[in-house]
């Protein structure tokens, strides 16, 4: 990786080898290096025609003629300026090719952590704002520590006395990772250090949490609603398969049901079993039923399961 400084901004250029075929005369090289130039949106950049110096050249973007001159100046780079730039001599021979890729340096992301498989595993995900629009790599580590001051979360923790773990990437999800080897009921919070890196820069963000505060099971599964006795519906479900041990860490369940709109939903709380009966329902009405789960002692409720509908028979 090299750094090429234009008149107005320092831009990062990455060289990669590309075979560029051209119908030029034999005096022009058949193979050239294409330079990939990453620039920040809103910045200014000057593009020289390789090592041609002050030679007058014709500039094109994606094959469309732009202007002539030894240097192509862009005063306020936008996403629309992205593309393949070429410069040509007066004989229209290709002299240089450059791929301009506008984007943004990484910003401090919003981080969200939850534990759907307490106590075995927690998950963290993050979102960028604005989107970098460039290839961005993420690395995350975590450990038990302290936030010493606002804006200095984790600063000053003795590195040699701290055991750090790598937050494992989740296949297919570039902005999510899994935390394992977790300690229950720690008086100190966990600290997650997320570093975002792309060709325009790097930024690190530290997020703190208490494990028991972020316990959130996945929704219950296999929700079934069947017609029972008069004006009744029987509801059954199973615990989420991601919850590792319902016997040692029991779940309680909430049930909500409605007919018409969700705004009219009624909620029934704290069922320890995996079945219940809805009573006193309206005949000939279709009801939608959902179930959520939460650990009996810590954390928060899961999202609601997908609605399952059933119709109460006419009397």
Strand order of the largest sheet: 1-2-3-9-8-5-6
Major sheet size, sense and barrel closure = 7 strands, mixed
> What is the mean predicted local confidence, pLDDT?
86
How large is the radius of gyration?
A: 30 Å
Morphology call? elongated
> Quick one: how many beta strands?
24
| N-C termini distance | 77 Å
Descriptive notes:
It contains no helices and 24 strands. It is mainly beta and 315 residues long. A hairpin with a 2-residue loop joins strand 14 and strand 15. The N and C termini lie far apart (77 Å). The N terminus is likely disordered.
Attribute tags:
315 residues, mainly beta, 7-stranded mixed beta sheet, 4-stranded antiparallel beta sheet, 24 strands, disordered N terminus, glycoprotein, FN3_IL27B_N
Draw up the topology in text.
Blueprint: E1 2-5, E2 10-17, E3 33-40, E4 45-48, E5 58-61, E6 64-68, E7 71-74, E8 83-88, E9 94-103, E10 110-117, E11 121-127, E12 137-144, E13 165-166, E14 168-170, E15 173-179, E16 190-198, E17 201-209, E18 221-227, E19 233-238, E20 251-258, E21 266-271, E22 275-278, E23 286-295, E24 308-311
Parallel strand pairs: 3-9
Antiparallel strand pairs: 1-2, 2-3, 4-7, 5-6, 5-8, 8-9, 10-11, 11-15, 12-13, 12-16, 14-15, 16-17, 18-19, 19-22, 20-21, 20-23, 23-24
């Amino acid at each position: 990786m090299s750094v090429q400084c234009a008149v107005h901004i320092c831009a990062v250029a990455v060289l990669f080898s590309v075979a560029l075929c051209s119908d030029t005369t034999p005096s022009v090289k058949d193979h050239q290096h294409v330079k990939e130039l990453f620039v920040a949106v809103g910045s200014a950049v000057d593009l020289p025609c390789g090592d041609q110096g002050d030679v007058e050249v014709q500039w094109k973007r994606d094959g469309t003629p732009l202007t002539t001159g030894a240097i192509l100046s862009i005063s306020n780079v936008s996403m629309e300026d992205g593309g393949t730039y070429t410069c040509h001599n007066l004989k229209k021979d290709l002299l240089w090719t450059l791929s301009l890729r506008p984007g943004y340096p990484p910003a401090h992301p919003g981080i969200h952590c939850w534990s759907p498989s307490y106590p075995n595993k927690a998950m963290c995900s993050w979102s960028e704002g604005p989107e970098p629009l460039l290839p961005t790599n993420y690395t995350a580590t975590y450990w038990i520590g302290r936030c010493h001051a606002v804006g200095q979360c984790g600063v000053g923790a003795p590195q040699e006395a701290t055991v750090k773990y790598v937050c494992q990437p989740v296949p297919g999800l570039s902005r999510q990772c899994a935390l394992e080897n977790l300690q229950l009921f720690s008086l100190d919070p966990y600290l997650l250090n997320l570093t975002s890196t792309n060709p325009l820069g790097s930024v690190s963000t530290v997020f703190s949490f208490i494990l028991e505060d972020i316990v959130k099971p996945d929704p219950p599964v296999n929700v079934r609603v069947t017609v029972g006795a008069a004006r009744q519906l029987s509801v059954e479900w199973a615990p989420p398969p991601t919850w590792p041990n319902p016997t040692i860490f029991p779940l309680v369940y909430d049930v909500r049901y409605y007919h018409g709109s969700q705004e009219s939903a009624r909620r029934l709380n704290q069922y320890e079993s995996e079945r219940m009966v809805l009573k006193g329902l309206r005949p000939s009405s279709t009801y939608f039923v959902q179930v959520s789960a939460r650990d009996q002692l810590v954390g928060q409720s899961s999202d609601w399961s997908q609605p399952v509908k059933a119709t109460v028979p006419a009397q």
